[in-house]
Automatic annotation (TrEMBL):
UniProt xrefs under HAMAP family: Allantoicase
Protein name stated in the entry: allantoicase
Any one of the GO BP annotations: allantoin catabolic process
UniProt source species: Candida orthopsilosis (strain 90-125)
Catalytic activity field: allantoate + H2O = (S)-ureidoglycolate + urea
Family assignment from sequence similarity: Belongs to the allantoicase family.
Length: 336
């Protein structure tokens, strides 16, 4: 059975340690689905919270910001297959949000996964090829549900299938796991902060206007909404910060702080520290080494800083002074 967690438990045990591997902002995709008569499956992976407009109707019926199928499904379940936005991942848990679906929500769900590196092979799969990640579990109307496994799956998967029994609606679906990137030559310089290479923002001082996980996304984004932005500080000496677990311990060569789209609210200065811990529970008492001292930043620009320290680091801590917004953080180096 899957564990049912509270939202605060799920945030601390799952969200802060793992990655939503199917999310739209991570380039997750809908591969296929059984039905989407009332509302489209692509809504499931949208990053923003669902909304409701009870006055809005379409040719199919009432408009919903989610995935909704026809009534009276003659099969056991309706389903959606997702292609991960990362090369592969070990899976740990999921969030199922039935917001605004009341009387037409999914009564139960399950999650399965498969490792297939060529999408064309999906059509050849039989039921026995799909491996259970979250077994069939009941859902209620218009609420968030948080399900987790006792431990990560041993296999790293590339695609997942959400089944709802027998039909109905789900607003959003998040699937969390540990990213397993494509094996790279250990001498190759890569961005170890990138979510595509296993980077995770594990701790953050504040994320009032934009979440810290955005810092590790590919590309430079499209506006301020897909960056990290903190509240305006009013106390002298205030700073904000984020701790990033690198995809693997690495000898860093270059840090990039990108303030793209932050033009009147970029930080005045930044600094970067590094540490190496074997047990992440020790991160609060870790000894941090300054690898980039306080450095002036400016609007809408990629700032590159060379790292002179040759130690291997497992985590970096980026501090913004006193507050503001950052679009992306890159940490280039070679695997230790």
């Amino acid at each position: 059975m899957a564990k049912v967690l509270t939202e605060s438990q799920f945030q601390s045990q799952i969200v802060s340690k793992y990655v939503d591997v199917i999310g739209e902002k991570l380039d997750g995709k809908i591969h296929s689905f059984s039905d989407e008569w009332f509302a489209q499956a692509e809504n499931l992976i949208k990053p923003k919270a669902p909304i409701r407009d009870a006055t809005k109707f379409t040719y199919a019926g009432a408009w919903y910001d989610g995935w909704e199928t026809r009534r009276h499904n003659e099969q056991e379940a309706d389903w959606v297959i997702f292609k991960f936005g990362v090369s592969s991942a070990n899976l740990i848990g999921c969030e199922v949000d039935t917001a605004f679906f009341n009387g037409n929500h999914a009564p139960a769900i399950s999650v399965e996964a498969v490792q297939v590196y060529n999408d064309s092979e999906l059509e050849k799969l039989g039921e026995k090829d799909w491996e259970t990640v979250i077994p069939k579990t009941e859902c209620g109307p218009s609420q968030k549900h948080f399900f987790a496994r006792d431990k990560l799956t041993e296999k790293n998967y590339t695609h997942a299938r959400l089944r709802m029994y027998p039909d109905g609606g789900i607003a959003r679906f998040r699937l969390y796991g540990h990213v397993v990137p494509i094996t790279k030559d250990t001498s190759e310089v890569v961005d170890f902060a990138s979510v595509k290479n296993g980077g995770v923002a594990i701790k953050v001082s504040d994320q009032h206007f934009g979440t810290a996980d955005n810092l590790l996304l590919p590309g430079r984004g499209h506006d301020m909404s897909d960056g990290w932005e903190t509240k305006r500080s009013r106390e002298p000496g205030h700073t904000d910060w984020v701790v990033i677990r690198l995809g693997a311990p690495a000898h860093l060569q270059k840090i990039v702080i990108d303030t793209a789209h932050f033009r009147g609210n970029f930080p005045q200065k930044v600094n970067v520290k590094g540490t190496s811990v074997k047990n992440e529970n020790d991160i609060d008492s870790a000894e941090w080494v300054t690898i980039i001292p306080d450095s002036k930043t400016s609007a809408d620009k990629e700032h590159e800083f060379s790292v002179k320290d040759t130690k291997a680091f497992s985590h970096i801590k980026v501090t913004i002074i006193p507050d503001g917004g950052v679009k992306r953080i890159r940490a280039f180096g070679v695997k230790a």
